[in-house]
Structure formats: structure tokens, C-alpha cells
Write a structure and sequence with these properties.
Layout: E1 6-15, H1 19-30, E2 37-50, E3 53-66
Antiparallel strand pairs: 1-3, 2-3
Length: about 70
């Protein structure tokens, strides 16, 4: 088994639709500039409320990506 080294970054995704969409959008955007993304971890979920209803979801993620040899 190869011994890889990983870098971890923190990002925040947002969506008006759902927590899942916020995660998906954050990862899709990060994948435009980061290579070898291998995993994510949800650190925090929060949101914005307007008129008694959820207006935005925000999710803080840690992303792990393998450093190239």
C-alpha cells in the first residue's frame, strides 16, 4: 500500500435548497482548482432564517487531497 501525504483545507458551501446541495456545490467548486480530492468531513452546519423559514444553508467542510509525488 502506498504511503501518501495529504493536505487538508477548510471551505464553506451554501445553498438555498439543502445541506446536500451546499456540500455538492462546495466540492464541485473546489474540484475546479484542487486535484486528488479524496474525502470530506462536515465540520459545521448553519443557516440563515427569514420570516420564520430557512433561507440559506451553509456547511463548513474539511477536504482532504493527496499531494502529488
Amino acid at each position: 500500500m502506498p504511503e501518501h501525504v495529504y493536505k487538508v483545507v477548510e471551505i464553506v458551501g451554501s445553498s438555498e435548497e439543502s445541506v446536500s446541495k451546499a456540500i455538492d456545490r462546495a466540492i464541485e467548486k473546489a474540484a475546479q482548482t484542487l486535484r486528488n480530492i479524496g474525502w470530506f468531513e462536515v465540520e459545521q452546519v448553519r443557516g440563515h432564517i427569514e420570516n420564520g423559514k430557512v433561507k440559506h444553508y451553509q456547511v463548513t467542510l474539511k477536504l482532504g487531497f493527496r499531494l502529488e509525488d
